[in-house]
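Student: I would love a firmer grasp of how sequence relates to backbone shape in proteins. Thank you; the sequence and its tokens follow:
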Amino acid sequence: MTQDLLPVTRIPRAGLPPHALVVGDPERVATVAALLDGAEEMSYHREYRVFRGSWKGLAVTVASHGVGAPGAVLLFQELAEAGVRTVLRFGTAGAMRPEISDGDLVIAEAAVRDDGVTHQLLPPEYPAVSSPEAVLALQRAAREAGARHHRGLVWTRAAFQPGLLPLFSYDGAGLAAIEMELSALLVTASLRGLVAGGVLVIDGANADELVDEDTTGGYNPHRDVVAAGVERGALVSLEALRLLAEGEQA
């Protein structure tokens, strides 16, 4: 019998564990899956790569959504259709406050909806907020792992680099980090009745501070301090999923 697959991501309509961790990079999803017991690749279509396995006895799904909210929201919607009920996003971001350093984790309490897609789904007044239990589980997991972390608001913005048009800036608004997909997850989760949240590894300055590639400095996420943060963040994210599942049973 042909397996019933969802149309965009080609993930199976049934059989995925209900607790999921999502990341942007298909390569990173394989790295995270390697931390699981009995990891099995379920599908790989376009930017959407999906594994299932077990973390400390909890069955989990790990999936990649690519770069940018318009494509990512398709994965989030189809994960919900496949029966996933809890989703944490684990990604990278630029710091928006001087006390937040490369390799630090930022746990998102809510996100600015500048993502390029959700304004076509809902009015701008509709909030993009993390589930409180997800925030607390991520914070507890980070504390127990000894990972330097911060809580705060995140700016999800569709444009990565500035072009000819001036971009509005939230500098001075107290935001913690800038990234590209989280608000789409949080809005989808609210609409679908999911538990959702996000933890981000700081990999450099925000996009508007980039300098030419030919100069010293500039944006370079491929550094040891970022790699160490990603390793910590993966463990924190998986442990937070376990804590959330544990809380469901309490």
Remarks:
- Residues 210-216 have pLDDT under 50 and may be disordered.
- Residues 224-249 form the longest helix (26 residues).
